[in-house]
Design a protein that fits this description.
The structure holds 2 protein chains of 2 kinds. By secondary structure, chain A is of the alpha/beta class. Chain A contains 6 helices and 6 strands, in the order H-E-H-E-H-E-H-E-H-E-E-H. Chain B has 2 domains: about 30-260, Neuraminidase, CATH 2.120.10; about 265-389, 5 Propeller (Tachylectin-2, Chain A), CATH 2.115.10. Chain B starts with a helix and ends with a strand. Classes of the chains: A alpha/beta, B mainly beta.
C-alpha cells in the first residue's frame, strides 16, 4: 500500500518537474554559453516577457521557422521575468504552445543586467530576437519581426 | 516513508496553488516594485508588496531604519509588483495616506486598479476598492496616483476596453488607451472614468506631476501613426471639460514591442516641464528635455546610452536632478546629474551608489529643497542622498 501511494505521488509530481516548457534559470554566468555560436546553422533566442502582448505572435513565427528548418535552427525561449515566476512562465508557454522548446527565465529580480549581458545594444524592449550564427556573427532585432525580417533569418 | 511523502505533498500543493490562483505568485522574496514619498512632516513612507499584501513602512531617519510593515490590504490578493508596475503612495492635505496598485486577473495582461485610504496617517486603512466602473476582465493596470491642488485624488491607468471593442468588430487598434478618474471625497469614491487618449503604449508607466496651478498633468508613451512610440502630455481635467493630449516627443521610434520603459516628469514652480524618457531609434538612449506640448522638447540632452535605464527627474526652484540606473557586467550603478540653472546646463554624470544585486527603478524625492533617490535593491531598500555628507 505504502509503495502504491509513493508511486502514485511520484507519477503526479514528475510531469511537473520534467515538463519541457518549465524554464531553467538563466544567471549572468550562464550567458556566455547561451551566446556561444552553434556548431552549425543558427541559434535564435526568442526573448519575451509576461507583460508583452507582442511576444506570443513573434515566438510562434519563430517556431514556424524552426519547424521548417529543424536541422539548422535551434530555438530557445528566454523570459526576462524572474524565475520566481516560473510557474506563470511555464503556464503561458504551454498556453501559446511554445512549451516544446528549451526555455530559460532570468535568475535576477530585475532584468537590466542580463539584458545588457545578452546584448549591450538592447534597452530591454520585447520581443527581442537574438540571432547567433555558426560563423560567430550576431544580430539583434527589437519588436515583432516583419515578414521580410523573418525571411532573412532563413538559413 | 512519512518523511519522504511530506516533501512530495508540499511540492504538489505548491503546484496546485500556482494553478488555482492565476496571477497569484507563490510565496517568495518581495519583488523590487516599490514606491516612496516624503509626507509634509518629512517622514519617509515606502510601499511594496509581499505575499499578496501591499506593505507600508516608514522611516524617521532618512531610510536608515524602517518601521515594521503594516498591511494596507488585510485580505491577500494578487498584486503587480515588478518593473513598471508597482504600488504607489501619496498624501492628502489632512494627513490622509492614499495607496494604489494594480491587481492581476486570471487572463494574461489583465488587471484592476485598486485603491485604499487611511484617514489617520496609516494607522488604519479602508477596505480596497476598484477604481474603475468598468469591471470587464481586461487590462486596467499601470496605475499612477496623484493629488491635485484641491485635494482631489487623481488616478490614471492603461486600459484596453477600446482595443477590445475594436477587435470584436474586426477593426485595427494600435496599443491601448489611457483612462483616468478622480475622487472628490478624499478617496471614498471615484467618479466614472474618462478617456484621456486612445492609442497609448500598453506596458509603460505613466508619469503624473502637479502644475503650479494645482492641476495634475500626465506624460506617457503613446502610439502615433504606424507604431511610433513617442510620448504625449496632457492635463487631466476634473471639471468635466475634455482633455487635450498633445504629442510632446518626436523621436520617431517605430516598433511593435513593449518598451517596458515609461517616462518621468517634474514641473517647476515657473511651469517648466522637466522630462526624461527612453527611446531606441538609433540604439538605446535616455533623454532629458523641457516639454513644449505640440512641439519638440527644448534643451534636449542625451543623458546616457547602452546600459542606462529607468530615469527619473525632480525639481526644486532652479535645481533639477536627474537619476538613472546604469548597468554593466558587475551590477548596477545609480547615476546622477544636477542642474543649478533650471535645466539649461547639467554637471557631469556621477555615480552615487552601487549594487551588485538586482535593483528597481530609481525614484527621486525632494525634502526641504534636498533630493534623495529611493532605490529598492534585492539587498534592501536604500535612500541615497544626492549631496555628499
Amino acid at each position: 500500500m505504502r509503495r502504491l501511494v509513493l508511486v502514485a505521488l511520484l507519477a503526479l509530481a514528475l510531469p511537473t518537474l520534467a515538463h519541457a516548457g518549465t524554464p531553467a534559470s538563466l544567471s549572468a554566468g550562464d550567458v556566455p554559453a547561451l551566446l556561444k555560436p552553434p556548431a552549425h546553422g543558427v541559434r535564435i533566442l526568442a526573448v519575451w516577457a509576461l507583460d508583452c502582448a507582442y511576444c506570443e505572435a513573434n515566438m510562434q513565427a519563430l517556431a514556424k521557422l524552426q519547424q521548417l528548418h529543424p536541422q539548422d535552427v535551434e530555438l530557445v525561449t528566454v523570459a526576462t521575468d524572474s524565475i520566481a515566476q516560473g510557474a506563470q512562465i511555464a503556464a503561458r508557454l504551454k498556453a501559446m504552445r511554445m512549451d516544446g522548446y528549451p526555455a530559460r527565465a532570468y535568475a535576477e529580480a530585475s532584468p537590466e543586467r542580463l539584458d545588457f549581458l545578452i546584448d549591450p545594444n538592447w534597452g530591454g524592449e520585447t520581443p527581442r530576437t537574438e540571432i547567433i550564427r555558426a560563423d560567430g556573427s550576431r544580430q539583434g532585432i527589437s519588436g515583432e519581426l516583419t515578414m521580410p525580417q523573418l525571411q532573412k533569418l532563413r538559413p | 516513508m512519512r518523511t519522504f511523502i511530506l516533501p512530495l505533498l508540499c511540492l504538489l500543493s505548491s503546484v496546485a496553488f500556482a494553478h488555482d490562483m492565476p496571477g497569484m505568485k507563490m510565496p517568495r522574496e518581495p519583488a523590487l516594485g516599490a514606491s516612496a514619498a516624503f509626507d509634509t512632516h518629512g517622514r519617509l513612507w515606502v510601499v511594496d508588496a509581499a505575499d499578496g499584501h501591499v506593505r507600508l513602512r516608514h522611516s524617521d531617519d532618512l531610510g536608515k531604519t524602517l518601521s515594521p510593515p503594516l498591511y494596507v490590504n488585510a485580505v491577500a490578493e494578487p498584486i503587480y509588483d515588478e518593473g513598471e508596475n508597482r504600488p504607489k503612495i501619496t498624501f492628502g492635505s489632512r494627513g490622509e495616506l492614499y495607496v494604489s496598485w494594480s491587481q492581476p486577473r486570471a487572463k494574461p495582461w489583465t488587471g484592476f486598479v485598486r485603491f485604499a485610504r487611511s484617514p489617520d496617517g496609516g494607522a488604519h486603512f479602508s477596505a480596497p476598492i476598484t477604481v474603475h466602473h468598468d469591471h470587464a476582465e481586461i487590462t486596467h493596470r499601470f496605475d499612477a496616483l496623484a493629488v491635485d491642488g484641491h485635494g482631489r485624488v487623481v488616478i490614471a491607468w492603461i486600459d484596453k476596453r477600446d482595443m477590445e471593442a475594436a477587435q470584436a468588430k474586426g477593426r485595427p487598434y494600435l496599443g491601448a488607451a489611457v483612462y483616468y478618474s478622480w475622487s472628490d471625497d478624499a478617496g471614498k469614491s471615484f467618479v466614472p472614468e474618462r478617456k484621456l487618449m486612445d492609442n497609448s503604449c500598453e506596458c509603460c508607466r505613466i508619469a503624473l506631476a502637479r502644475t503650479p496651478g494645482g492641476e495634475v498633468a500626465a506624460f506617457f508613451r503613446g502610439v502615433y501613426g504606424d507604431n511610433i512610440r513617442d510620448h504625449a502630455y496632457a492635463l487631466l481635467p476634473t471639471d468635466g471639460k475634455a482633455p487635450h493630449p498633445e504629442r510632446a516627443t518626436f523621436d520617431g521610434w517605430r516598433i511593435a514591442a513593449c518598451p517596458h520603459h515609461g517616462p518621468g516628469l517634474a514641473i517647476a514652480a515657473d511651469g517648466t516641464r522637466h522630462a526624461v524618457w527612453y527611446e531606441a531609434k538609433s540604439g538605446p538612449a535616455i533623454w532629458y528635455g523641457q516639454l513644449d506640448p505640440g512641439h519638440p522638447p527644448q534643451h534636449l540632452l542625451k543623458l546616457a546610452a547602452p546600459g542606462a535605464s529607468h530615469a527619473d527627474v525632480a525639481v526644486h526652484g532652479k535645481t533639477v536632478w536627474l537619476a538613472w540606473n546604469q548597468v554593466d557586467a558587475n551590477g548596477y550603478t545609480l547615476m546622477l546629474r544636477v542642474s543649478a540653472d533650471g535645466g539649461l546646463h547639467f554637471d557631469a554624470a556621477r555615480a552615487i551608489a552601487h549594487s551588485s544585486a538586482a535593483v528597481g527603478s530609481p525614484q527621486l524625492l525632494t525634502r526641504q529643497g534636498h533630493a534623495f533617490v529611493a532605490w529598492n535593491t534585492a539587498d534592501g531598500f536604500r535612500l541615497v542622498p544626492t549631496e555628499a555628507r
